[in-house]
Amino acid sequence: MARTIKNKERDSIDFGTAKIGPLFNSIFYPTLLSMVFASLFTVADGIFVGQGVGSDALAAINIVSPLFLVTTGIALMFGAGVSVVASIHLSHGNHKAAHINITQAFHVATLLLVVVAGCVYLFRIPFLRLLGGSDALLPLCQEYLLTILPGCVCIVVQLIGTFVIRLDGSPRFAASLEIFPGLLNIFLDWLLVFPMQMGIAGSGIASSVSCAAAAGMALWYMFFRAQTVKFCRLRLSPTSFWLTARNVGYMARSGFSSMLGELAMSAMLLTGNYVFIRELGEDGVAAFSVACYLYPIVFMVNNSVAQSAQPIISFNHGAGRRHRVQRAFRVSFSTATICGVLSTAFLTLATKPLVGLFLQAGTPAYQIAIGGLPLFSYSAIFFAMNVAIIGYYQATEQNTRATLCMLFRGLLFLVPAFLLMPMFISPQGMWLAIPVTECMTLAVILLTDRRIISR
């Protein structure tokens, strides 16, 4: 039976019979808006810190950023995983199983993030050294890390809530989980960095407070507004713990490629920081950080395409409606390709004003970024296509394919490209490492699954 949700306070969602194009658009535009604000959440940190504190502080945030990406990846793994699993349960009319899975995802992911944050706090100095923090940057890195840790815990509730609330038929409220915190973060960044002169710590506090606000909104919705998907009471028994472990393992497998997407960005930051600081020093890391602040915009725009198609594809995959799955993928892929082309054009044509948002004109870091960002921008086109295809694999439970694709672009191609390309062409090779990685990943996908584009 198709699932339809409609009343005066909610959007009308019919995953089973509505026309794919309008259905996709009804989810995509609110999701896109929320993703843009989510990326502004990150960009605001860079702009205010770069202008209000300096390039060293900008480089310090770039050193710490892999931690935030890892925690975001864990949250996305549980969020995407439970969305796929719950969608299939709902397509079979098994609401109780969906409720249990959702409750387990929230509980286990939050507990895991608390443990991770605690370990990072206890071993923060060796951890920052591992991330590439130099003696000059270590004090700033530690100051930012301590203030961002609470936000790393809260973001898991925010992101899982976004997936679940969208599945519940409220993409607009799901979008508000990004829009309101994004606006709050921008205001707090300005307030704490400029008038209150709290430096890099102010930026970290702003991010943590904004994540906490989003988590509170998600919990309020789940307790007071949720209709189709809700929390339920979990039993405390050996059998219940075993079932939770089994279900969490299945959700983790379904959403693992989403986590690998964030880990790919983390690997990009970590490897890039090492290479840029080795070749160009702290100014090189500061210049690279500009690309790293802008890359989430590309990531979020294209991720909104994959996330919008996911519940449609998963629901109809579970219901056995193959023609609707294929139609949804075609809409997703074409939309992603358009977004990728526009992103590349934007980053290329607006290089100077974009770099000027983060760095003072005329500084060494500014000049390095001006020369490198147009080269870096070509990654957007190939990245968009890869994300749409990987999202399709994930939504149709082709978890091995999705995971392998993410491993190619996040580790197997990326690290060698960063390490080897500067040896042949420097500094251009450092900036071209990511576009080459995305292009090679797309080539592997097309060679191993030649039917994917014809679907």
| SS elements, strand count | 2
| Individual helix count | 15
Structural class per helix/strand content? mainly alpha
Low-confidence stretches: 1-11
Q: Strand order of the main beta sheet, please?
A: 1-2
> Kindly state the mean pLDDT as a whole number?
85
Helical proportion, percent range: over 70%
In short:
The protein is mainly alpha-helical and 455 residues long. It is 83% helix and 1% strand. α1 packs antiparallel against α7 (199-224), α1 crosses α8 and α8 crosses α13 (399-412).
Q: What's the layout of helices and strands?
A:
Blueprint: E1 4-5, E2 13-14, H1 20-52, H2 55-91, H3 95-122, H4 124-130, H5 138-167, H6 171-193, H7 199-224, H8 238-319, H9 322-349, H10 351-358, H11 364-376, H12 379-395, H13 399-412, H14 414-424, H15 428-448
Antiparallel strand pairs: 1-2
Q: Can you offer a commentary on this structure?
A:
It is a single chain. This protein has helices at 20-52, 55-91, 95-122, 124-130, 138-167, 171-193, 199-224, 238-319, 322-349, 351-358, 364-376, 379-395, 399-412, 414-424, 428-448; strands at 4-5, 13-14. With 455 residues, it is an all-alpha fold. A two-stranded antiparallel sheet has the order 1-2. The longest helix has 82 residues, at 238-319.
Sum up the structure in keywords.
83% helix; 15 helices; disordered N terminus; mainly alpha; 455 residues
